[in-house]
Design goal:
Layout: H1 3-26, H2 32-39, H3 43-55, E1 59-63, E2 73-77, H4 79-108, H5 138-148, E3 152-155, H6 158-168, E4 177-178, H7 181-190, E5 205-207, H8 209-213, E6 220-224, E7 230-235, E8 238-240, H9 244-252, H10 260-267, E9 272-280, H11 296-306, E10 311-314, H12 322-335, E11 338-341, H13 355-365, E12 374-376, H14 388-400, E13 405-408, H15 429-441, E14 444-447, E15 451-454, E16 459-462, E17 474-475, H16 479-488, H17 499-508, E18 517-522, H18 529-543, E19 548-552, H19 553-559, H20 568-587, E20 591-595, H21 601-612, E21 616-622, H22 626-631, H23 637-642, E22 664-666, H24 673-686
Length: about 700
């Protein structure tokens, strides 16, 4: 048999398998005779196909109750079968497109100009056609839920839930699941999947070593949310331990934990990556702003209904102010397009304003936009703050949502400063990389204009287009200045922001002197942390105004973590518990004072991120030397550690990561407790956390 004949035979078999799986999903209870008739094949060939599909785990056979012996069995598509059907869909469509194109050329002498779905990213006129999703039909999903009850389950992290949602609803098209090792390597090294498709961001299922060790390649697992609700299944085709330092260097530009995604990669993500196709059973449930959440196909349907053909997307993870309004008006006018305000409400940069407040701010200014030309939809995306790569990623995601234009800002998705105090990315790196790939992506970039307020003309104008800069008064308020004014309760002028937006921000961000905060002491055992913390608590209670709680290391060990030992894992868990309690106190407007040893910088950073979501985190390094701590050792712990009777003792047999940039460093040798506590109070006053 020639290779061409063999290839044609393989394509025919794949097409038949695709049509069989699709038919079983559409009519799972049909008789063999009806199924064979629907496929146009004999009963004998159908039986052979069913046996092969059953042996491959794509179909499950069940006994049927009833007197008719000719209908003794039912054949249901399995999770693996659904994943295989999704994989074969593109191949089937590609072959049919090719056959049509060849016929068109034979009859007319020219090609049809049609492009298979998988390769349509450069065809902007197709932006309103439905795109493939990974969900099975409702009937199949009910059966898969029952089947998945017997599968090994993985409880997804918040980031993984965001990723899975966009995989299933087509937001991450052309991905059909979490990346295989081959796809991952291509994405990390050159922003390409194994088949050459542009994709800049690794979308992987990271798991623990213990969980990965239980799995066999080819095994199906259930993917559940944090409440245990099953969202989908995955066939594990790949399992590997990635080089995370290389991933950090190639994807984020530096292996520097000052980058939030690199910190997540090294300190939160699982050690093992799993890859394989996903079958969607149901979307994650969102109880907030449900009317504002749209899948890619729902947005495309809305655009079709409204008759919109060109749509520009404005992404934001910050509240909208008047400059943003003017920017979006100009962008839509420049592109001659309708406007979609498309804010990210998944995971953004630690310390960002929570999405509940932001969405209320967006809704407060929507009436400033023409309803007939503007729409708002929320995107449940877990941002990586990857700058240039993130901009390309955002463009592909918006293309999948039916957008034709995308606003890319200065330092788009930048995480701020690195460990040396320098920006991770150049201000226009994101625009340059997007521009390089926009033709392939099929979505056009609209440059972000830096808008400033010209007082004499009472309007916003692009800063680089003001010809008479020396003759007019140019006003602008930076993000830092806005935060300062909010923190200190100062006026925010109407030329800068809408009163309704300012009111919403003040609800969530009252003046700092009325916010909750955490003072986090860290230092060696015997350094004086607890003593100073107690003195500070008394002084704050004397001042009054906010409830104050002391979370001393020894007291927490006794009341909150009595079952924990002193291994690194248990010490980390103890500090995370302290951080969680402190974050709840801070969120509710109280003052939390923590005094654990907290030897590891990564753990302290994680606690900082948890707390800064709700208020200030003030790290105080009690910098007493190890020699002085040994002299003060009332409990005799250092002596026991020197003798080897206490294992993993901080400063003796286990390291202590000295804080590099604490808010305050206290030298206790030669200074009494009252003086040290007073230094903390002065620091809190200078930060605006307590009244003068």
């Amino acid at each position: 048999m020639s290779s061409q004949t063999a290839k044609a035979s393989l394509s025919e078999e794949e097409d038949l398998l695709f049509r069989l799986l699709r038919q079983l999903e559409l009519a799972p209870g049909a008789s063999q005779r009806d199924t064979a008739a629907a496929l146009g094949i004999s009963l004998g060939r159908l039986n052979a196909q069913l046996r092969a599909a059953t042996e491959a785990g794509l179909v499950r056979v069940s006994n049927r109750q009833g007197p008719d012996k000719r209908q003794r069995f039912t054949y249901d598509i399995t999770a693996r079968g659904a994943a295989e059907k999704n994989r074969l869909t593109d191949r089937f469509l590609a072959r049919k497109f090719a056959e049509y194109d060849a016929l068109h050329a034979e009859l007319t002498g020219t090609t049809s100009g049609l492009v298979p779905l998988k390769h349509r990213t450069n065809e902007m006129q197709n932006n309103l056609a439905p795109i493939p999703e990974l969900f099975v039909s409702y009937e199949s999903s009910q059966k898969l839920k029952v089947e998945a009850a017997d599968l090994v389950s993985w409880d997804l992290t918040p980031r993984q839930i965001c990723d899975l949602e966009l995989l299933m609803n087509g937001g991450f098209n052309p991905l059909k699941g979490f990346l295989t090792e081959e796809d991952y390597n291509g994405v990390v090294e050159n922003m390409r999947l194994a088949d050459g498709s542009l994709w800049p961001m690794p979308i992987t299922l990271d798991v623990s070593e213990d969980f990965a060790a239980k799995l066999e390649l080819g095994q199906d697992i259930a993917l559940r949310d944090q409440e245990g609700v099953i969202l989908g299944t995955m066939t594990v085709t790949d399992r590997w331990e990635p080089n995370k330092s290389n991933e950090a260097e190639k994807v984020f530009g530096a292996d520097d934990i000052a980058h939030p995604a690199v910190n997540y990669l090294h300190h939160h993500a699982g050690k093992i990556y799993l890859g394989g196709p996903v079958v969607g059973i149901q979307q994650p449930v969102h109880y907030d702003f449900r009317s504002r959440r749209d899948t890619p196909n729902e947005l495309r349907a809305y655009f079709r209904k409204m008759g919109w053909r060109k749509i520009v997307a404005f992404q934001t993870r910050n509240p909208l102010h008047r400059a943003h309004q003017e920017l979006t008006f100009r962008a839509a006018k420049e592109a001659e397009a309708n406007l979609l305000i498309h804010p990210v409400v998944g995971m953004t940069k630690p310390g960002d304003i929570d999405h509940f407040t932001r969405v209320r701010c967006y809704e407060a200014v929507l009436d400033q936009y023409p309803a007939s030309t503007t729409h708002m939809s929320l995107l449940n995306l877990a941002m990586r703050m990857a700058g240039p790569r993130e901009a390309v990623w955002h463009g592909l995601i918006r293309k999948n949502h039916g957008l034709t234009h995308f606003i890319v800002g200065r330092d788009h998705a930048g995480p701020g400063s690195n460990s040396k105090g320098e920006d991770f990315y150049g201000p226009y790196d994101a625009q340059d990389l997007f521009r390089e790939h926009q033709e392939e992506m099929g979505i056009e970039m609209v440059d972000f204009k830096h808008m400033v307020y010209v007082q004499e003309r009472a309007q916003y104008e692009p800063a680089d287009e003001i010809a008479d800069k020396d003759k007019v008064t140019i006003l602008n308020i930076s993000g830092t200045e806005l935060r300062r004014r909010l923190a200190e309760g100062l006026e925010i002028p109407e030329w800068f922001s809408f009163p309704a937006v300012v009111n919403e921000l003040r609800k969530t961000k009252p003046p700092r002197s009325k916010q909750g905060f955490t003072v986090f002491f860290t230092g060696f055992s015997g350094s004086g942390k607890s003593t100073i913390a107690n003195a500070l608590m008394v002084k704050l209670m004397e001042m009054g105004g906010r409830p104050t709680t002391l979370l001393d290391g020894d007291l927490v060990r006794k009341n909150l973590s009595s079952e924990l030992g002193f291994s690194k894992e248990h010490r980390d868990l103890n500090i995370r518990r302290i951080g969680y309690v402190a974050s709840e106190i801070t969120k509710n407007g109280g003052i939390a004072i923590c005094a654990p040893i907290a030897p590891y910088a990564s753990t302290r950073r994680a606690v900082r991120e948890d707390i800064e979501a709700f208020g200030a985190f003030v790290e105080v390094h009690v910098a007493t030397s190890i020699e002085e701590c040994e002299k003060r050792d009332r409990k005799g712990l250092y002596k026991l550690a020197r003798e080897g009777k206490i294992k993993e003792f901080t400063g003796i047999s286990d390291p202590y990561d000295v804080p590099e940039n604490p808010e305050l460093r206290l030298e206790t040798e030669g200074n009494d407790v009252d003086y040290c506590a007073q230094q903390v109070l002065l620091k809190l006053e200078s930060m605006g956390l307590i009244g003068a």
